[in-house]
């Protein structure tokens, strides 16, 4: 009877091993669920960014206002007849313009 009990215990352990630590075991399933939820969060962030970019593209295609706003902000463009005034904050100063020094080498 004791031998039968030991054999059944071993068979039970052998059948439980793949369930817990095998290729498709519970530990692997939990790891994959964590990875899936992390990937889902990344996907949601990328979808939000793509939607924002799509809205910006649509805005640029449909109207002049967005193009004009970008030209003014990013390129510093002005309309005909406008006067551009730039007011610098007191702690800012004009950028220094450095000219490259050209050295003259005497030929042989």
Question: Could you characterize what this model shows?
Answer:
The protein has 108 residues and is mostly helical. It has a domain at 2-73. Helices cover 64% and strands 0% of the residues. The protein is built from 3 helices and no strands. Helix 2 (26-62) packs across helix 3 (64-75). The protein starts with a helix and ends in a 33-residue tail after the last helix.
Sequence-ordered SSE layout with sheet pairings:
Blueprint: H1 2-21, H2 26-62, H3 64-75
Helix pairs in contact: 2-3
The total beta strand count reads 0
Alpha-carbon distance between the two ends: 108 Å
Helix content: 55-70%
Order of helix and strand elements from N to C terminus: HHH
List the quaternary state of the chains: single chain
In what range is the share of β-strand residues? under 5%
Computed structural class: mainly alpha
Low-confidence stretches: none
């Amino acid at each position: 009877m004791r031998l039968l009990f030991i054999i059944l215990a071993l068979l039970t352990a052998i059948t439980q091993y793949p369930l817990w630590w095998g290729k498709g075991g519970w530990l692997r399933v939990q790891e994959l669920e964590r990875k899936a939820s992390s990937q889902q969060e990344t996907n949601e962030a990328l979808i939000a960014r793509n939607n924002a970019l799509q809205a910006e593209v649509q805005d640029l295609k449909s109207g002049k206002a967005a193009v004009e706003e970008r030209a003014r902000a990013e390129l510093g463009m002005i309309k005909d007849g406008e006067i551009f005034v730039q007011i610098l904050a007191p702690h800012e100063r004009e950028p220094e313009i450095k000219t490259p020094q050209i050295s003259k080498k005497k030929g042989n």
